[in-house]
Amino acid sequence: MNTPENSYEQFLEPYLPSTTDRCFVTVTYAQSLDARIACAPGERTKLSGADTKRMTHFLRSKHDAILVGIDTVIADNPRLNCRYPTMAEDYNSPLSPQPVFLDTHFRWDFTKDWALLRSSTSKKPLIITESKNSGKIASYIEFGGEVLQVQDIRNWTEIARGLYSLGYTSVMVEGGAKVIDSCLTSGIADSVIITIAPVFLGTNGLAAAPSHAITFSEPRWWRSEGVPDTICAMKCDPISMK
C-alpha cells in the first residue's frame, strides 16, 4: 500500500508503455467493489473521483492511441482527449492520444455533432472495422479520417499489428465491457490498471471480466489520504506477436 506522499505518477511508472518494437497494450477502467462498470448496459455511470479521473488523463498522455467500442461511443459520446495536467474542461493537450473505435459494421455516423469532433485541435478517430462498405469508407477518408480494415475484429493480435503498422506503439483500451472482456480474454494486454470505487452497483450492474481465469504478476495497490478510490495495477505476460 502506498503512502500519501507517493504520487500515482510514480506508482504507475512500471506499468507504462516500455517497448517500441510492437504495440504495447494497456487495459484500464473503473469498477465498483462488485466488479461492475455501469448500473446497466448503455447507462453512463460515474465511478472515478476527481483524483483518479486525473490519473486516467495522465495515462492517456503516455499512450499513442486510446481505444473504445462503438457501443461506448454511442452511449457516452466521449471526448477521449487528454486534459492532463490542468484538467480544465476546455483544455486539449498536445499529448492527447489518437482515438480509435472498434466498429464491426462501421455504424458510426461521423456527420453528426460528436463531442470529440467539436474542437479544432481534435483528432478524427481511426475506425477499425470488418465492413467492406467502400462508399462509406471513402467518404470518411475524404472527411479526414482513417480506416483499418481487419478480417476478425475479435482478433486482438491482428488489431495490435494493424495499429503498429500505422505507427502506434501503445494503445490504452478503456471500454466498454465487451471490449474489455475480449481484450483480457485474448491475453494480449501488457498492463491492467483498475480504479476501484467504494460502491456496490448490484447484480443488475454491467460486469467486466474475461471468460476464463487469468493470473497477473506484480500486482500493486495505491491509495492516498482523502482519495476514496483505490488503484490496482498489474502486469501481464502478453502473447507472442512475432
TrEMBL record:
Q: Name one Pfam family in it.
A: RibD_C
Superkingdom of source: Eukaryota
The answer on whether this UniProt entry bears the keyword NADP reads yes
Record has Oxidoreductase as a keyword? yes
Tell me which EC number(s) this protein carries: 1.1.1.302
Kindly report, in one word, the top-level EC class recorded for this enzyme. Answer: oxidoreductase
UniProt entry keywords in alphabetical sequence? NADP, Oxidoreductase, Riboflavin biosynthesis
MF-aspect GO terms: 5-amino-6-(5-phosphoribosylamino)uracil reductase activity
Q: Which reaction does it catalyse?
A: 2,5-diamino-6-(1-D-ribitylamino)pyrimidin-4(3H)-one 5'-phosphate + NAD(+) = 2,5-diamino-6-(1-D-ribosylamino)pyrimidin-4(3H)-one 5'-phosphate + NADH + H(+); 2,5-diamino-6-(1-D-ribitylamino)pyrimidin-4(3H)-one 5'-phosphate + NADP(+) = 2,5-diamino-6-(1-D-ribosylamino)pyrimidin-4(3H)-one 5'-phosphate + NADPH + H(+)
What is one process in the GO biological process aspect for this record? riboflavin biosynthetic process
Pathway, per UniProt? Cofactor biosynthesis; riboflavin biosynthesis
According to the entry, every stretch annotated as the Bacterial bifunctional deaminase-reductase C-terminal domain falls at: 24-204
Role summary: Catalyzes an early step in riboflavin biosynthesis, the NADPH-dependent reduction of the ribose side chain of 2,5-diamino-6-ribosylamino-4(3H)-pyrimidinone 5'-phosphate, yielding 2,5-diamino-6-ribitylamino-4(3H)-pyrimidinone 5'-phosphate.
The UniProt similarity line reads: Belongs to the HTP reductase family.
Designated name of the protein: 2,5-diamino-6-ribosylamino-4(3H)-pyrimidinone 5'-phosphate reductase
Species source reads Starmerella bacillaris (Yeast)
